[in-house]
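Hi everyone,

Forwarding the result from last night's run.
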Amino acid sequence: MPPGHLRRARLIAGLRLIDVAESAGVCAETIRRLELGANKPTWATAVRVARALGQDDPRVLFPELLDGEASCS
């Protein structure tokens, strides 16, 4: 995912970073690092973050999951 894409999706949804983190059950630092492109999510984390942002398919927010390249966040 290009850096900034996840952040744009969060801002469009009108959510604060902490809101997404709490809804997804992860720490705010995890969301921050995902937004910066510093980490790639596990499938489980991607699903939870996507749901927190109202997306049914986490691959919309994390296209790298299409390539099977996701690793631990």
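The first helix runs from residue 5 to 12.

Cheers,
N.
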